[in-house]
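We close this part of the discussion by returning to an individual protein. The amino acid sequence and the backbone structure tokens for this protein are reproduced below:
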Amino acid sequence: MAKKNVTFDDIAKYTNFSKTTISRYFNNPDSLTLENQEIIAKALEELNYKENKVARILANGKTEFVGIIIPNLFMHYYAHMLNEILTSYEKFGYKFLVFVGNENPQTEQQYIQELLAYKIEGLIVLSHTIPSKELASYNLPVVTIEREDEYTCSVNTDNYMGAVQATSLLYKNNCDILVHINAHVSKKTPGYQRIQGFLDICTEYHQAYELIQTDFGKTHEDNVKHIAAIFDELEAKYPNKKKGIFMSNDTHANIILNLIIRKYGRLPDNYRIIGFDDSPIASEAVIPISTVGQQIDKIASQAMELLVTQMNERKKRKPVPLDQPIHQVITPVLMRRETTD
């Protein structure tokens, strides 16, 4: 048996089940008793069965593919998150089709149509451009990460707690002025809570602060250009003040750290920096950067768990859809490094 392809007919004869029962084991296992599932599973092992993936897809329409739409890969957070999701194959057995959206709604809608044509079983979305209501309309299991999620299941960081941790650390560094640099973030997104947490701590401690929101552009080069302009403004506006800078992500924290070191050859005493993510760039920077750890590995794992639960439910004879989206929140961890005291 081990020297040839084992067929459903071979398995049926070996187990004394009908070929229909064997087919149900592969295509609708929930329709069999656990005892019969175990008998067939043991037989597959003893027969050294090698599954024909293409035949199974043609038979039941289940591709075991999950789509991912991600904004870009120059931001270290997204690259780290994507890596963690992809490595979940060993645990869950799903393959991935990945598209980089570059914040273009029309392009991302085309990507979704392409993914649907490939008969994906579920979708993970980190991009912000397509509203969750539209994502939910595709009648497909969807999990979003760190974006607007009113109509979809999601896994997010406790962004408010993270901002409180970051801002409080800068305050304890005895800074004269605290500065938070972020994009124009919608209040409906989890990331807005980084702004809210910053503002609340500054108000509570009567701390002088400045909130800077800007469009960073769509490329790494654009990001560097905009952050360089902000750095020049801070240098001119607060020349003799100790500045505590809270960047909205580690990629931007590394950019401003590099700008400072290029000008001064070191990190001067009048600068303190903290980022957000704990992506590898924070610990590997020329001066390791303090940051708020999002536990990216845990977010990725929880997102896949949540998606797989939905996909498995749809495979049952009588699936029970969710009454409302599930929103999971992961606690951040403050990582103190050399850019703060």
Summary: Residues 296-314 form the longest helix (19 residues). Residues 27 and 60 are 6 Å apart (CA to CA). The mean pLDDT is 92.
